[in-house]
């Protein structure tokens, strides 16, 4: 069977461990590609174009919008961020499963454009664990943590729109569960129409 990659959108609460999970998954298995976003913000020290981001001018980014060259985009703090369609399609055609880490509104926009997208929502086992993880980072003020927990309460309203929940309790277990979900998706009948039609055609010579 020719195996085309699956577009995976990963969302979840701040502090749920999305970044850690993706890093562990792509470190363990080589069939994953992390989508690289385009942005109009300036590169930070050590960042390279085409590795962390595709760095664009505002004019270049607006051209990409006009050319329908982005799967989704948004503006944060005077900078644009978006997902280039060409890069994602290139990786999918190579047979890579492409992971896109974005928030709920962006995820649903992607699903509209690409109905075959697999939507995964990462959550801790309970709210207390989420609070402990946010506090444990030691990088944010109590006010920021309260804001993040408040936002998590809002984001929870969209969880049922996702295809699968990924409960990140123990990282190693979670990585295996997530890998298992994605691999199972490859064998869905709806993703294998070409194979089904070919074998049906081949079998017609045995028909009585």
Automatic annotation (TrEMBL):
Keyword check for GTP-binding: no
Cell inner membrane recorded as keyword: no
Top-rank lineage group of the source organism: Bacteria
GO MF, one example: ATP binding
UniProt xrefs under Gene3D superfamilies: Guanylate Kinase phosphate binding domain (3.30.63.10), P-loop containing nucleotide triphosphate hydrolases (3.40.50.300)
UniProt xrefs under InterPro entries: GK/Ca_channel_bsu (IPR008145), Guanylate_kin-like_dom (IPR008144), Guanylate_kinase (IPR017665), Guanylate_kinase_CS (IPR020590), P-loop_NTPase (IPR027417)
UniProt-listed SMART domains: GuKc
Domain Guanylate kinase-like residue range list: 5-183
E.C. numbers: 2.7.4.8
Membership in a protein family: Belongs to the guanylate kinase family.
Protein name in the entry: Guanylate kinase
Native source species: Robinsoniella peoriensis
Gene designation: gmk_1
């Amino acid at each position: 069977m020719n195996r085309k990659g699956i577009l995976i959108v990963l969302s979840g609460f701040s502090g749920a461990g999305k970044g850690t999970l993706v890093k562990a998954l792509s470190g363990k298995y080589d069939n994953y590609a992390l989508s690289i976003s385009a942005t109009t913000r300036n590169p930070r020290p050590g960042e390279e174009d085409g590795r962390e981001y595709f760095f664009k001018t505002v004019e270049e980014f607006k051209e990409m919008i006009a050319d329908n060259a982005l799967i989704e985009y948004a503006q944060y703090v005077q900078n644009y961020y978006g997902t280039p369609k060409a890069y994602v399609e290139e990786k999918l055609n190579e047979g890579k499963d492409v992971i896109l880490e974005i928030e709920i509104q962006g995820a649903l926009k992607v699903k509209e454009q690409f109905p075959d997208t697999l939507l995964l929502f990462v959550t801790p086992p309970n709210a207390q664990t989420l609070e402990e993880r946010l506090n444990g980072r030691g990088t944010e003020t109590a006010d920021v943590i309260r804001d993040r927990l408040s936002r998590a309460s809002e984001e929870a309203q969209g969880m049922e729109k996702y295809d699968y929940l990924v409960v990140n309790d123990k990282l190693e277990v979670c990585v295996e569960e997530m890998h298992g979900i994605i691999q199972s998706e490859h064998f869905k009948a709806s993703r294998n129409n070409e194979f089904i039609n070919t074998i049906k055609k081949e079998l017609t010579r045995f028909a009585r």
